[in-house]
From TrEMBL:
Residues 206-248, 255-293 form the Doubled CXXCH motif domain. Pfam families: Cytochrom_c_NrfB-like, Paired_CXXCH_1. Keywords: Signal. CDD domains: Cytochrom_C3 (cd08168). The keyword Protease does not apply. InterPro entries: Cytochrom_c_NrfB-like_dom, Decahaem_cyt-c_DmsE, Multihaem_cyt_sf, Multiheme_Cytochr_ET, Paired_CXXCH_1. It comes from the Bacteria. The keyword Lipoprotein does not apply. This is Cytochrome C. Residues 1-19 form the signal peptide. Residues 103-170 form the Cytochrome c-type protein NrfB-like domain.
Length: 339
């Protein structure tokens, strides 16, 4: 595991960064957490005690005003904010050192905004209309949260599609039990954009995501990975083995398509077939086993269940009535995946 991590981290630096991504390159002010920030480790984020105002690119001349100035006008927002993980930590830090940034650690120095609150861009606003470029928004959060799961945020499909941290997180209020997600659960947060995927989980066969036992982030890292589909592991099969460890084998007799990819036969987000299958048995098997011999010579009217000479290969559980070990067999006489 450690080895895999090291490979991932070093490969992150080699990964090509798309041209449009360079526009969002994160340049942290040198004074910020110089002592504690680690470029790409798995350390906890630097504590709130180190917090300084974020950099508002639109107003480099702005000065910090302190949270009492903000809360004088934003009492309602402050009430909602008070219960969140950030607020609790920041209040402790502020009590110890009155110079610690709180609101301004995310929103940037407030003097320009306090003097003219309606001027767009006067404060770092975490919306797509607020006048703050998305790159500046994410830079504010990444000042404390770079590295670890967000090692490859830059260049990831979500970053390239101009998502901001605040498309999924709302730190101003406790909407979710954990993770400060913008909706009550991870899956509903993703479903604000990926409705089609969420709907597939309503199909007859699905893993227990609507039931709350697993979530999108058990398999995906929304902050970016080195593969196209944001999988947390290098391959599809590794993802499945996290929970279905018995399918990893090793087997005395392998079934080639299982080793290649579980998705040869399964639909991960939901299916109306039995056991998340992409097609019903025997058609599923016959997509590949179509040579002339036992597997194939049976799709005739006569051999159907109500035909003249019903064939057991089409009845009951079809092929898997006999070839029950479709994922691989460890039985000395199991080369045909019977046992
Ligand atoms: C004098 C009152 C006042 C003070 C002081 C003030 N704000 Fe505001 N703020 C406002 C008003 C009014 C708006 C709404 C502006 C609008 O709708 O155009 C606003 C809007 C905002 C927004 C949303 C901006 C957007 O475009 O969506 C943020 C974020 C914000 N304030 C943060 C802060 C922070 C942080 C501080 C302290 C550094 C602060 N404000 C101090 C009055 C104030
Ligand atoms: C951890 C970073 C962070 C801190 C600290 C923080 N904010 Fe925010 N704030 C955000 C984000 C992100 C949003 C956008 C939320 C959304 O998606 O609507 C936001 C939105 C706002 C808005 C716009 C209205 C709203 O509620 O969406 C105001 C006003 C605001 N913050 C004021 C404050 C004040 C005042 C403080 C300090 C008491 C504060 N913020 C502390 C990140 C932060
Ligand atoms: C000043 C540093 C700092 C900034 C800036 C900051 N955070 Fe945090 N954040 C922290 C720390 C420290 C924690 C850990 C709190 C804990 O574990 O109790 C944290 C926790 C979190 C968590 C996890 C909360 C949980 O309940 O598990 C999320 C999500 C998060 N931050 C998102 C953001 C986003 C989005 C922004 C930008 C809008 C942001 N943070 C800005 C320091 C910061
Ligand atoms: C596409 C949605 C999405 C985007 C965009 C996103 N996050 Fe997250 N983030 C999540 C989800 C989902 C979790 C997991 C929450 C949970 O486990 O409850 C999470 C967890 C976190 C956590 C806590 C656990 C950890 O990974 O350390 C932090 C901190 C965090 N995100 C920061 C950020 C920052 C900073 C950005 C912007 C650069 C960002 N996120 C962008 C969806 C997103
Ligand atoms: C604000 C909208 C938005 C939210 C919220 C969002 N995504 Fe995305 N996501 C996108 C966009 C846009 C793309 C790129 C376009 C596409 O291929 O659909 C994308 C792409 C992806 C991809 C890669 C698709 C591919 O074809 O390679 C995955 C996987 C994904 N998102 C997972 C998630 C997960 C998991 C969450 C929740 C933690 C989430 N997304 C939340 C907008 C969003
Ligand atoms: C059990 C693991 C798992 C869970 C849970 C999961 N996914 Fe996936 N997801 C995958 C795999 C595997 C792929 C296909 C990867 C490939 O083809 O390389 C995928 C592909 C995707 C894609 C891109 C391809 C497509 O079908 O459009 C998106 C977008 C996506 N997932 C979003 C989500 C969202 C949103 C959730 C939560 C509602 C979710 N996933 C839950 C494993 C999972
Ligand atoms: C986070 C854990 C997790 C991961 C990762 C995971 N699964 Fe599952 N899977 C489950 C759970 C939980 C069930 C339900 C088991 C039960 O009901 O006994 C399940 C059930 C299934 C079923 C049976 C569905 C049915 O209707 O009988 C199939 C098939 C399946 N998973 C395939 C996959 C594949 C393929 C992957 C990889 C893309 C995968 N799983 C990854 C947790 C996971
Ligand atoms: C050649 C097609 C095929 C491939 C490839 C395949 N499966 Fe299956 N899988 C099936 C069939 C058929 C069933 C239904 C078996 C039954 O009903 O007895 C099934 C059932 C399952 C089940 C539920 C019953 C059980 O055995 O626990 C899980 C979980 C599962 N598969 C996981 C996986 C995983 C993980 C992979 C990848 C390592 C994978 N499958 C690859 C055909 C396949
Ligand atoms: C994606 C293609 C694919 C699918 C779908 C598929 N198989 Fe296979 N199967 C193969 C390949 C490739 C081999 C290895 C053939 C070889 O070694 O000559 C194989 C081998 C076998 C063997 C061992 C045959 C031998 O000669 O040793 C059996 C039995 C078998 N499959 C049954 C099934 C059954 C039952 C299903 C449906 C549940 C199924 N297969 C679905 C591709 C597939
Ligand atoms: C009634 C039990 C039974 C059913 C149902 C059945 N098979 Fe078989 N199958 C066997 C036996 C027994 C063998 C071994 C024959 C041998 O070793 O010569 C075999 C051999 C095979 C082989 C290896 C063929 C070869 O040329 O050596 C494949 C592939 C296969 N079956 C696929 C299928 C598929 C696909 C289905 C469903 C359409 C299916 N089987 C249904 C009993 C069955």
């Amino acid at each position: 595991m450690l080895l895999a991590t090291a490979v991932l981290v070093s490969a992150a630096w080699l990964a090509p960064v798309k041209a449009d991504a360079s526009a969002q390159a994160v340049k942290l002010p040198e004074t910020r957490f110089a002592s504690t920030v680690s470029g790409h480790g798995f350390d906890a984020p630097p504590g709130f005690a180190d917090a300084v105002p974020a950099r508002n690119q639109a107003h480099p001349e702005a000065k910090a005003v302190g949270e009492q100035v903000c809360t004088a006008c934003h009492a309602k927002e402050n009430d909602n904010f008070a219960h969140t993980a950030h607020a609790l930590g920041m209040q402790v830090a502020l009590a110890a050192n009155p110079a610690t940034a709180t609101c301004e650690a995310c929103h940037g120095p407030g003097s320009v905004h306090a003097a003219n609150p309606t001027a767009k861009g006067s404060i770092i606003a975490f919306t797509h209309e607020g006048g703050t470029p998305v790159a500046n928004q994410t830079e504010s959060c990444l000042g404390c949260h770079s590295g670890g799961p967000r090692d490859v945020w830059l260049g990831s499909i979500h970053q390239r599609n101009d998502l901001s941290c605040s498309d999924c997180h709302n730190p101003m209020q406790k909407f979710s039990a954990e993770g400060l997600t913008a909706k009550q659960s991870v899956s509903e947060t993703c479903a604000t954009c990926h409705k089609d995927i969420r709907q597939q989980f309503n199909r007859r066969s699905h893993m227990p995501l609507p039931e709350g036992q697993i979530s999108c982030v058990d398999c995906h890292n929304p902050h970016g990975t080195l593969n196209a589909t944001l999988l947390k592991t290098d391959t599809v099969n590794e993802t499945c083995y996290q929970c279905h460890a018995e399918k990893r084998g090793p087997f005395l007799f392998e079934h080639a398509p299982v080793r290649e990819s579980c998705l040869n036969c399964h639909q991960v987000h939901g299916s109306n077939q039995h056991a998340l299958l992409v097609a019903p048995v025997p058609m599923l098997c016959q997509q590949c086993h179509s040579h002339t011999r036992h597997p194939n010579d049976l799709q005739t009217e006569l051999s159907l269940g109500n035909g003249m000479t019903p064939d057991e290969r089409l009845m009951g559980r079809g092929c898997i009535t006999c070839h029950a070990q479709v994922h691989g067999s460890n039985h000395p006489s199991g080369p045909r995946l019977h046992k």
